């Protein structure tokens, strides 16, 4: 390794002036990075041999400042700068361009595999403990790379491409590495297009709520309905909730979407018979928001729905981001009579620990187990174990994703009392829920009259 001296190779009369240097780390700054990239691109303009630029972002850096103070944060940034400069490949250059972002130029890296290899090396180097004197701190970093000239020929275009790749890495979690491609760019453009359309749809009240029945497996009678979001855009067509709900959460407007959907669902549920409950899904962002219980109660109070008829579903994965705040939110919801169900049980981490730590009212067995219950003995044993455990903990159980009569019969045989899925009914609009309830009440009344005649 023979990394370039960041204070050599002058590109202006005075490259060592403050205007070209980051005062904290001594690395070059954004302006010096820009000059470096422009010079390299100019040198390769006639025969555009590729080179790579990248951006590294320190994951979770802000809490370090909040927890240990800015002096500790500055010390970590200086150590990051030292590590990156020490491990740069031949001819490489590194600059600090934002608070916790570093950019680098790799003149001898020509393609995706090379960029990913360097990214993995940087990732390993930056994941080693940081010495703060009286403590060690571990951090991770996410990376975005862009290869010249395929990702752009000008500085601004190249940096934007690397930033797009970095953004995708951050979306995927911590410590991720992404190299820019047209497919990624199209994915990001599509996401922005959907985001803008969804924001307009929320304002225009165009996101609908459908309801899937939850039934008593012994006779198929309706116990409640789960509210499910549905959205069809005039230009984009049908957009799956599996796409637009995580997008709303990621882009920071899940609260407005949830408020709209909960209000609609509660207005419908208020007119169902008193014994029919409404089940509604909370997002992971809301589960770690201390104001969630207050916000939920405010919505259903305005509508006039009894809190005791509302069940909120949360996933174990959502709880893992901040279990302490999540536990507080769950407790506050239950204190006003709202019940809380653990959704997708068996697919998250440390499920048994979650049942111990959180006072859930119900557990929903994930559809992945239900779909295999009649063909895979291990799935059957897992479901049997879940049901036995929940019985011991006095927890009610709902099986999700029941699609065949065989699955329904097997679940009854194992002792499961409630379920939902296409076998019992797909999600329907609000008007159809009333028709289903009315048909059930009519059938029940007819059976009662028949019993009187027989007697």
TrEMBL record:
Family matches, as CDD domains: EAL, GGDEF
Family annotation (Gene3D superfamilies): 3.30.70.270, EAL domain
InterPro entries: Biofilm_reg_signaling, EAL_dom, EAL_sf, GGDEF_dom, Nucleotide_cyclase, Rev_trsase/Diguanyl_cyclase
SUPFAM superfamilies: EAL domain-like, Nucleotide cyclase
Residue ranges of domain EAL in the record: 191-441
Highest taxon of source: Bacteria
Positions of the GGDEF domain: 49-182
PROSITE patterns assigned: EAL (PS50883), GGDEF (PS50887)
Name this protein carries in UniProt: EAL domain-containing protein
Biased composition (Polar residues): 8-22
Annotated stretches, region: Disordered: 1-24
